[in-house]
Design a protein that fits this description.
The chain has 4 helices and 20 strands. The protein is mainly beta. The protein is 9% helix and 38% strand. A hairpin with a 5-residue loop joins strand 1 and strand 2. It has 2 domains: 38 residues, SH3 type barrels (Roll); 201 residues, Fumarylacetoacetase-like, C-terminal domain (Fumarylacetoacetate hydrolase, domain 2). It is an enzyme of class 1 (oxidoreductase). Keywords: Metal-binding, Oxidoreductase. Its EC number is 1.1.1.-. InterPro entries: Fumarylacetoacetase-like_C, Fumarylacetoacetase_C_sf.
């Protein structure tokens, strides 16, 4: 099953079955154009994995890590499918990073590699937006990774049977392919990541593990459209606009849905 969270025409938050061009809840069918899509899960935290594709490590002149590199994105980073995202002002470079997101289905700790699949609710698409200006000069990457709306996710939560072995991960910028790889190329696979994280950190139902990005990351400018497509899940699409903040002006605000 694939499910989506959305605001129905009355403004109520619903979770319904995704049917491509519509979503169903309570024996009602809603056309996607008539609802506001929300992130398909409401995580307490997003745990991201750095340098989990060898070719991405190479393009950043980094060594392949000996253990998973972990960092957080906080709840303020959430954005949904079709949201228009305002880029942070006064930053020279904000990059897209298409990734597979693992959605956790239950509170868990000390999960073994063998039991990891039991705690997975499903999968989604993630775009780990990265403010390189601050990331380059920070050790903990708070400004670089956790600025508002820097984690678009969606469009759906797809239960595990939808994700094929070797699923492809593709990111397009204005229709042109920039990233194309497979989850077979992950340095640390999903069970290893769950076991490593839960050795020290409890995961809650709805939390997301962003499994890392392939080579080909690149900058976003105002007016760009970025699509992250993962085989078996679907396509996360967002428009981007430049901030209009200048002097005493107030800058555009996009609600965090």
């Amino acid at each position: 099953m694939k499910t989506a969270r959305f605001l129905d025409p009355a403004g109520s938050i619903r979770t319904g079955e995704w049917n491509g061009n519509s979503v169903e809840f309570g024996n009602q069918r809603f056309d996607l154009e008539d609802v506001s899509l929300l992130p398909p899960t409401n995580p307490s935290k997003i745990i991201c994995i750095g340098l989990n594709y060898a070719n991405h490590a190479k393009e950043t002149d980094s060594d392949i890590p000996e253990r998973p590199l972990l960092f957080f994105k906080t709840p303020n980073t959430l954005a949904g499918h079709r949201d228009t995202i305002t880029l942070p002002e006064s930053k020279d470079r904000v990059d897209f990073e298409g990734e597979l997101g693992v959605v956790i289905g239950e509170q868990c700790r000390n999960v073994s590699i063998e039991d990891a699949e039991k705690v997975i609710a499903g999968y989604t698409c993630v775009n780990d937006l990265s403010n390189r200006d601050d990331q380059r000069i920070e050790q903990n990457w708070v400004r670089g990774k956790s600025f508002d709306n820097s984690a678009p996710i969606g469009p759906v939560l797809a239960t595990p049977e939808h994700l094929p072995d070797g699923a492809t991960v593709e990111t397009r910028l204005n229709g042109e392919v920039q990233q194309s790889s497979s989850i077979d190329d992950l340095i640390f696979d999903i069970p290893e990541l769950i076991a490593e994280i839960t050795e020290l950190i409890s995961l809650e139902a709805g939390d997301i593990i962003a499994t890392g990005t392939p080579e080909g990351v690149g900058p976003i400018s105002g007016g760009d459209v970025v699509e992250v497509e993962i085989e078996g899940i679907g396509t996360l699409k967002n428009d981007y606009r430049a901030s209009k903040f200048s002097g005493d002006e107030t800058h555009d605000f996009v609600p965090n849905q």
